[in-house]
Structure prediction request, 373 residues.
Amino acid sequence: MRIGFDGRYVRWDHHDGISRFSAGLARELAQLVARRPDLELVLIVSDSRQIPLLPSVETLLVSSPTSAREPWVAHQVNRADLDVVFSPMQTMGSWGRKYRLILTVHDLIYYRHRTPPPQFAWPLRLLWRLYHLFWWPQRRLLNRSDGVVAVSRTTADLIAAHHLSKRPVFVVPNAADLPSVTTAPRAFASRSKQAVYMGSFMPYKNVETIVRAASLRPEWQFHFLSRIAPKTREALMKLVSSDNVIFHNGTSEDEYQQILNDSRALISASLDEGFGIPLIEAMAAGTPVVVSDIDIFHEVAGEAALFATPTDPQAFASALDQLDDGPTWEALARVSRTQARTYSWRASAERLLDVLDEVGSTRGFGERTQELT
Prediction:
């Protein structure tokens, strides 16, 4: 069986969520496929700069996923004579395809919070907003596939609740690179009284609640690591009543790990998420997480997290107070490390390969309708 992997979302400047998902899965999937003489892997790319960031296997160069040619990209992909193609997004064109297709749904956030990502050009932002005004475009895309991957059980349940696909839905969890899992975490006594936020400043991220919590706990430092627009930073600073809020406006991977290892908590007041990779990264470092009381964070963090009402700054401040107690902090740190180990790119790639085997098989496909868990 020849497997196609859509690697066109891998970024060569810096990873975003979809890029990490693509690169992590592709790396581990290539190793699994290499052990199977009955399988071949072909990476589909749209720019030669993506190739060094992906495994050294056969590649196929096609148009960009944001090209006007995307609805008919299958005519280019057909050249590789593939049996099944996996795309880490749900928007891969399918007109004229001669292979089985698996699409991915990460979340349904933008149906509830319709502000499009600011990095997109205005025509794409307009299309993004129009797309999320109605459910039928998503249904049509997903029903033109042969199978759907959801990155979490929460997302899979939402797909079912909104009747988005008649195709089988499989859960292939998101994951994170966990270099610190195999090293001893820093103890409570060597941690600074600081909380870390890693994520965008989109409205649904609800960063305002964290900033207000910072004003309630001036003895803590709050580090916001991601890049931030000057206007957004200015608006948030107006909410600050102390000097304990630090905007880094971007950090390197090494700096991020160092700050996680130095900090007593990672914090997120997000109103909605498809997964929560920063939670795994923090837990792997033995850093407890204080997060919104929403379904996806319960799924990802389990008993390792302290939960707070998303719009209540006092609830987040009170949760941080619990981390002032050494034994409580150490207990949460141990549970966090254990929870982080349940998520890995290898485990997710193994699940994906099971899905590819099932959907790509010419025997019995379609008879099974239950989700793979």
